[in-house]
Write a structure and sequence with these properties.
Layout (H helix, E strand, L loop, with lengths): L3 E4 L1 H9 L4 E7 L4 H13 L3 E5 L1 H7 L8 E5 L7 H10 L5 E5 L5 H14 L3 E5 L8 H6 L9 E4 L2 H10 L3 E5 L5 E2 L10 E5 L8 H6 L2 E4 L11 H19 L1
Parallel strand pairs: 2-3, 5-6, 5-10, 6-7, 8-10, 8-11, 9-11
Antiparallel strand pairs: 1-4, 2-4
Helix pairs in contact: 1-2, 5-9
Protein name: 23S rRNA (Guanosine(2251)-2'-O)-methyltransferase RlmB
InterPro entries: Alpha/beta_knot_MTases, Ribosomal_eL30-like_sf, rRNA_MeTrfase_TrmH, SpoU_MeTrfase, SpoU_subst-bd, tRNA_m1G_MTases_N
Family: Belongs to the class IV-like SAM-binding methyltransferase superfamily. RNA methyltransferase TrmH family.
Length: 248
């Protein structure tokens, strides 16, 4: 893949701010000036080519995405290595906080998880190379630009990655509706932690579940016994943040 599309005001703005290599920006003739003016000003400062085009061209370029009349052509998304994520945590003198996604397939869920990961101070997200959503324009748009700040690693084997994290002293916590232990007040989130979120329909695979140090669940009071994957991930990520802030 030689190029990637970034669509929408927030996504393009954060890509510019983060120093992402952008080759060109297209602005729809009908785009609202108050949305596009700051982007145009920043792009001109950076010497990025800006082209005003018919909105239909943008609709064809990023079909199905609410682009708000702004689309950028960027260098391919730069995935990182797992060691880079751990090193970033150590550089901040913080206990590692990672999110492992076991075959999350919906790009909207991946985008939402990246957005919450940024808000809660997670150091990075790990996804498998196969049967998993990759970072795309839809993911970038759903993440509101957070994809530019949360490192994402793609790995060939999630199970082996969990083994490596355990060797590095990271506690692996899986989310499972059948678990006995509640996510709240369990004391496992203050040290180095990797939170595993399972597939939207099947949950975690058996092998991944067996490799977890502890399984937790969200308490359910209603008739429906599960949440959307990105919502569940968000609740648990905020419990990690709350636990760490309470510890000081």
């Amino acid at each position: 893949m030689e190029e990637e599309w970034i669509a929408g005001k927030h996504s393009v703005t954060e890509a510019l701010r983060s120093g992402r290599t952008i080759n060109k920006i297209w602005i729809a003739d009908t785009a609202q000036k108050h949305l596009t003016q700051p982007i145009i000003a920043e792009a001109k400062k950076l010497g990025i080519v800006i082209q005003h085009v018919d909105k239909r061209k943008l609709d064809q370029t990023v079909p199905g995405i609410q682009h708000q009349g702004v689309v950028a052509q960027a260098a391919p998304y730069a995935y990182v290595e797992v060691d880079d994520i751990l090193a970033a945590a150590h550089a901040k003198n913080e206990q590692p906080f990672l999110i492992l996604l076991d075959e999350i397939e919906d790009p909207h869920n991946l985008g939402s998880i990246l957005r919450t990961a940024d808000c809660t101070g997670a150091h990075g997200v790990i996804v498998p190379k196969r049967r998993s959503a990759a970072v795309t324009a839809t993911v970038s748009k759903t993440s509101a630009g957070a994809v530019e700040y949360v490192p994402v690693a793609r790995v060939s084997n999630l199970g082996q990655t969990i083994d490596r994290l355990k060797e590095a002293g990271v506690w692996v916590v899986g989310t499972d509706v059948a678990a006995q232990e509640s996510v709240f007040g369990n004391g496992v989130f203050t040290g180095p932690v990797a939170l595993v979120i399972g597939n939207e329909n099947k949950g975690m695979g058996r092998l991944i579940r067996e490799k977890c140090d502890v399984l937790i669940k969200l308490p359910m009071q209603g008739q429906i016994n599960s949440l959307n994957a990105s919502v569940a991930a968000g609740v648990v990520m905020y419990e990690v943040l709350r636990s760490r802030q309470a510890q000081g």
